[in-house]
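RECORD TYPE: inverse folding
INPUT: structure tokens
STRUCTURE:
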């Protein structure tokens, strides 16, 4: 079975995009290889995102905050889908993506901005995780070989 590369973008690549990467890579369908990056990546992955990714069984060595520039390089993996998960990244000028991948914006509030107890913060991260999982589940059910940007964007309206 062909695996589809999906790149999740968010400005700092520390929370939402990392969750997308882990969810796609560990999805029960086995159809995806997840990646994540940001326009101005931070120095580390948010500890709550790390915790959830590890609970999913995602490889800890892959939990890094990365620049989206590395995925525009000639030797980078070719992406089939590019999904922005924050409004800031959706409005930025992205690098050229080789291969003309289908693109979409699946906006979620930034869980790292939630104030309160650790449990309040965990709940915010889990809410984003469940929202992303729902959209990835919908994506997995589509005919991926023929999917275009318009179809990918429709997933946003169905979830």
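DESIGNED SEQUENCE:
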């Amino acid at each position: 079975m062909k695996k589809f590369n999906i790149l999740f973008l968010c400005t700092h690549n520390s929370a939402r995009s990392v969750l997308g990467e882990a969810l796609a890579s560990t999805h029960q369908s086995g159809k995806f290889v997840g990646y994540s990056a940001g326009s101005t990546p931070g120095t580390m992955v948010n500890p709550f995102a790390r915790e959830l990714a590890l609970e999913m069984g995602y490889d800890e060595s892959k939990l890094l905050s990365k620049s989206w520039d590395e995925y525009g390089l000639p030797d980078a993996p070719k992406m089939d889908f590019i999904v922005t998960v924050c409004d800031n990244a959706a409005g930025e000028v992205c690098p050229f993506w080789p291969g003309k991948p289908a693109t979409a914006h699946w906006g979620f509030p930034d869980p790292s901005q939630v104030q309160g107890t650790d449990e309040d913060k965990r709940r915010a991260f889990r809410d984003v995780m469940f929202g992303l999982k729902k959209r990835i589940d919908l994506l997995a059910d589509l005919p991926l070989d023929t999917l275009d940007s318009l179809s990918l964007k429709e997933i946003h309206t169905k979830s």
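NOTES: The mean pLDDT is 88.
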